[in-house]
UniProtKB/TrEMBL annotation:
It comes from the Bacteria. GO terms for molecular function: beta-glucosidase activity. Belongs to the glycosyl hydrolase 1 family. Keywords: Glycosidase, Hydrolase. It comes from Blastococcus haudaquaticus. This is Beta-glucosidase. Pfam families: Glyco_hydro_1. SUPFAM superfamilies: (Trans)glycosidases. GO terms for cellular component: cytosol. GO terms for biological process: carbohydrate catabolic process.
Amino acid sequence: MTASSFPENFLWGTATAAHQVEGGNVNNDHWEMEHAEHSPFVESSGDACDSWHRWEEDLDLVAGAGLNTYRFSLEWSRIEPEEGEVSRAALDHYRRIVDGCRDRGLTPIATLVHFTMPRWLMHDGGWTGQKTGDRIARFTELALPAVRDAAYVATINEPNLMAVQPVIGGMARRGEEIKGLPVPDQAVSEALIGLHQRSMAVLRGAGSPPAGMTLVGLEYIDEGGGQEPMQAARAAMMDQFLTAAEGDDFVGLQIYTAQRFGPEGLIAPPADQQTLAHGMERRPRALSAAVRHAATVLPDMPLLVTENGIATADDEDRIRFTSDALQSLCEAIADGVDVRGYVHWSLLDNFEWMLGFAPTFGLVAVDRETFTRTPKPSLAWLGEVARRNGLG
Ligand code: FCB
């Protein structure tokens, strides 16, 4: 390894999530929230990128660029549209995506739950419901045959961010200023950790591919006098989740930004350093800070960067951002942090949840009328980094 090269067999890929790209996911909680009166969603996910039909073209783009990994997620509401009713066709769809990856030399990374749940679950307890443990266990059993040939299976995407959502919702309703990610709701955190463990138990019992969860990772910065609130935030947001991952096969980290703290707690980033999405600070080096921290909590745990990227209309800036982020990752790996791969968010410009289609995280643009995919220069650039296995 030189100063800007990566370990042998390093994974290089891009990620998507079912609800953000498939389109027509009319049977999950998000669709319902998108269409509710006074919805906080600026628009409907609608047809999204029509990847339900165009997934082969998507895989061709990833493989054609020279990348070797594709991360995608399963949509529970398609697989189990009503409680106990199973769509074999939907399961087969996801199994074909795994096979389609393998056929193209792509390493598949499958996520079982990426934020969305079926409507029936939303109306009967949601993530914190009493029966949800049994239900996610059953869903995992159903889903496993479809993803058995994946290289990695993630149970739940970003449970630590999911536990922040209700807190943000409450602040928004009270008209409080949101300066960054507040501390997650502890009861929700514990419920989600419990669900991860139920799903893991099924995977373990059935001899699944290496399994774990993916977490939002952040760089934590003390601007002076902020040690106490910073440590408390990091303990709630990162350390309790990392500790809960002990015994898993890997931890996925999804790193976009930093959080700054002063004596009063969170400090919002200066306006001129905010990116297009979520008012996040543009902070490429957060990538190495977050993987380094995870390695201090879980020294023997293989880590995967399962998301990293930037929402920008300026593709050259995407390349600069990613190059700086990767340079910092390289340094962390050289210092001994066990990172096995880097998966960029996202393959496509897609449905960015409450913000709709405006934030563009994609390496590939998608025409909103025709769904035509147009690769941006950043796709070829990342493919070249993958071929070289280094920044060059
Ligand atoms: C992550 C989500 C992913 C995407 C990116 C920008 O928190 O996992 O679906 O929205 O942020």
